[in-house]
């Protein structure tokens, strides 16, 4: 074990206090190695995220004081004794991660060694925890303890330990060129946006439009030229709606545009948000993306009422084939159900609270709607998210510009005010520098 004596006794951390709207910056004990699989990370940057607001507002079903935040990037400062070069048969980081390595952590811990992790469902590893919850202290602090660190972390100092579709030289160059604030988007919001888009575009309900073959021939490799059904040009146009244009919604939209462009799918994409400044941001982002990143389909950014009318018009009253619901409340889901076509899919990646769903089994039956819910397996989604991050530095690489996803980087002293302003929709994504 690397000597933990280099760690201070106490650190500054952003703490949530029950019942709601109470964020304090406090001195708390600095973390220590508790298990041989642990790593301690000195946090360089920790981000504030839309899903932090569920706990902030008291909707998280949580009643314990804890350190907030599940998005952080930093440097390894201590490793448990299971990190040794002689380790075999475990995730590569147990034999290769070193003190001093730069790492980004997915927002949940995962072991990387069980059936669930092997299948890529890393967000639901039975040994997993969510950072920034009563079960595991978060990353809006100077230091964070990462359990199962060999299965969880990404070592940015040694990219041979993770895959990417990019050629090695481009991958290496990207890692030296891209800023830490941009790489931090890989902790949650960019993988989550990519997850929403890829779940939708690969969903069986979307297959007829993508393949040009009717259900169920869309699942067959057979030639269908003898089939009596032939699609019109407009049958081949995929209509997608993104509901919610916060930072994750923008990531989902950018990712969907990229997926449609690279697959050369004709499309109509409707991005919806009731907040005008968020709509403006989305439009500025769209204008910033080059032609290769947005294909040749129709793209509109609309208010809720405008979207109701527009989706009807665009689809002759049929509705959209895929809806990405990136808000996580019942009114967003209600709107999703209203806008989706019969035989459509709703992919929801927002964190839903306790209220019952606004749709009944009968509603879903009557429209043959697939409802796809849940947390992004950020570790499994890291490679495609990294590739999109590299490609879309025009949007993901800057801070505080009109097309930037990140609005500002502030010190921990501004945490309380940042939570308030983010909750009110007055600022976009805020990042904390705990050493500023
Ligand atoms: Zn997050
Ligand atoms: Zn696992």
Automatic annotation (TrEMBL):
Keyword Zinc included in the entry's annotation: yes
A Pfam family recorded for this sequence: ADH_N
Record keywords: Metal-binding, Zinc
InterPro entries referenced in this protein's UniProt entry, alphabetically: ADH-like_C, ADH-like_N, GroES-like_sf, NAD(P)-bd_dom_sf
Molecular-function GO term, any one: metal ion binding
Domain Alcohol dehydrogenase-like C-terminal: 268-389
Annotated Alcohol dehydrogenase-like N-terminal domain residues: 36-149
Keyword Zinc: yes
Cofactor: Zn(2+)
Protein origin, superkingdom: Eukaryota
Gene3D superfamilies: Medium-chain alcohol dehydrogenases, catalytic domain, NAD(P)-binding Rossmann-like Domain
Xref: PANTHER family: DEHYDROGENASE, ZINC-CONTAINING, PUTATIVE (AFU_ORTHOLOGUE AFUA_2G02810)-RELATED, ZINC-TYPE ALCOHOL DEHYDROGENASE-LIKE
Protein name as annotated: Alcohol dehydrogenase
Species classification: Eukaryota, Fungi, Dikarya, Basidiomycota, Agaricomycotina
